[in-house]
Amino acid sequence: MARFCSVLLAGFVPCLLAAAEPDGKAAPKVLIYTRNHVSTGTGFVHDNIATSVAAVKELCAEQGIVCDASEDPAVFTTENLQNYRAVIFSNSNNEAFSDPAQSEAFTGYIENGGGFVGIHSASGSERANPNFKRILGGTFKWHTPNQKFTVVVADKNHPATAGLPAEWHWKDEGYLCDLVPDLHVLLEMDTASVANPPREKWALKFEGNRFPLSWCHQVGKGRCFYTALGHDKEDYADPLFRGHLKGGILWVLDMAK
């Protein structure tokens, strides 16, 4: 703690001290990662990134969790990742890493007990990387146009869903991902409630009228949580959505009560 206080203005020192836990241990620390990059110079970048990062920081601060934020892939070294209890991919997209060593460091970090949280377009990161797919739980394939539909709570007892109604009417892009097996599904899209386009025109075919939108699972020793919700900037001020995010983050950190 003293190492950081020595380089900051005195007025900021109490904030850092307040971040310490009552027993004197350092507060849990997470990294918020937002890289949106494609080598060809094209690719969609969400305008919600700054809003999502601000919301995550607020939610974490309420729980005594310290946050760093970066879009620099150089943060993914084995040594640096040891500073964090979890990495939160907040509306990242496309190429998360700039070289294979960064991906290997991240995979090893998760497998050895680091946590992962993915928000919305994070499922569009590293689309050809099987290890990232395994960690997140799937890879983005297609989404419906942004519209209102019904979200169904699949597990009402999880911290990420405990405050939600059984059926939640929500406006968002309905994400369809190519999923890995054995996910613990938390939220599902009622596909029959999606008006446009008709189901037969969807790019991913599946059975039934439910499709996972949020889930959690374990990869090695690491806890992983993902939610496909959160396209609109306004979402990050919504109390239900904020509770959903907070519960997922706390579950990953094993801090949920």
> Helix segment count?
7
What letter string, H or E per element, gives the SSE order? HHEEHEHEEHEHEEEEEEEH
Considering the protein shown, what is the CATH homologous superfamily? Class I glutamine amidotransferase (GATase) domain
Number of E strands = 13
CATH topology: Rossmann fold
Rg from Cα: 18 Å
> How many domains?
1
Strand order, main sheet: write it out.
3-1-4-6-13-12-11-8-9
The pLDDT mean sits at: 90
User: Which structural class do the helices and strands define?
Assistant: alpha/beta
Distance between the termini: 27 Å
- CATH architectural designation: 3-Layer(aba) Sandwich
The quaternary structure here is: single chain
* CATH class bucket: Alpha Beta
Level of helix content?
Answer: 10-25%
What coarse outline follows from CA principal-axis ratios?
Answer: globular
Low-confidence segments, ≥5 residues, pLDDT <50?
A: 1-20
Biggest pleated-sheet summary? 9 strands, mixed
What can you tell me about this protein's structure?
- The chain has 257 residues and is an alpha/beta fold.
- The chain has one domain (28-252): 3-Layer(aba) Sandwich (Rossmann fold), CATH 3.40.50.
- The protein is 24% helix and 28% strand.
- The chain contains 7 helices and 13 strands.
- The protein has helices spanning 2-5, 13-18, 49-62, 78-81, 100-111, 130-136, 239-252; strands spanning 29-33, 36-37, 66-70, 86-90, 93-94, 115-119, 138-143, 147-153, 167-172, 175-179, 184-190, 210-219, 222-227.
- A 9-stranded mixed sheet has the order 3-1-4-6-13-12-11-8-9.
- Helix 3 (49-62) crosses helix 7.
- The longest helix has 14 residues, at 49-62.
- It is globular, with a radius of gyration of 18 Å.
